[in-house]
Amino acid sequence: MLRCYEKGKQLDDSESPWCRVELELRNKNRLLPWDMLTRPGQYLAGSYPCLAFLSLEQNKLRTTQKATSISLHCMTNNAARLSGKAINVLMQLHQEDASAVVDLLRRGGIPKRLEAYEDNLRSMTGNGIDP
């Protein structure tokens, strides 16, 4: 979250040119590097294109790997909530043969919400995701 305000005017100095810019970063869906504490201006400059003028070097935070893990976790929870009982019944009908149950339920491709993370999924599985 970016906050910009005229600090001088906030302090009742209508002639003050003092403008304050604050960047709030959270570690939800991303890992925040310790480097941010020693070079905060580069992360501020890299956070929004309009702030690029603040530093010649801009550092941008990467979110995809952690977002992929979170999306996989959510997908697994949703699948268990929606299909867990059905899978339980199918396992009993097929004498606990998980392979037979998976063959019955499996469909090609990946969920639409994971398409943005397809490259990360390939690196996590070591080969790829079959269409």
Which key features would you list for this structure?
131 residues; mainly alpha; 47% helix; 2 domains; 6 helices; two-stranded antiparallel ribbon
Could you explain the architecture of this structure?
The protein folds into 2 domains: 2-54, no CATH class; 64-125, no CATH class. The chain has helices at 7-10, 35-38, 40-47, 64-93, 98-105, 118-125; strands spanning 2-6, 19-23. Helix content is 47%, strand content 8%. Strands 1-2 form a two-stranded antiparallel ribbon. The protein is elongated, with a radius of gyration of 24 Å. The longest helix has 30 residues, at 64-93.
Taken together, the total number of domains comes to 2
The stretches of 5 or more residues where confidence is low (pLDDT under 50) are none
Rg for CA atoms? 24 Å
Our count of helices gives 6
Walk across the major sheet and give the strand order.
1-2
Number of strands: 2
Beta-strand percentage range:
5-15%
Distance between the termini: 37 Å
Shape: elongated
> Overall pLDDT, averaged?
84
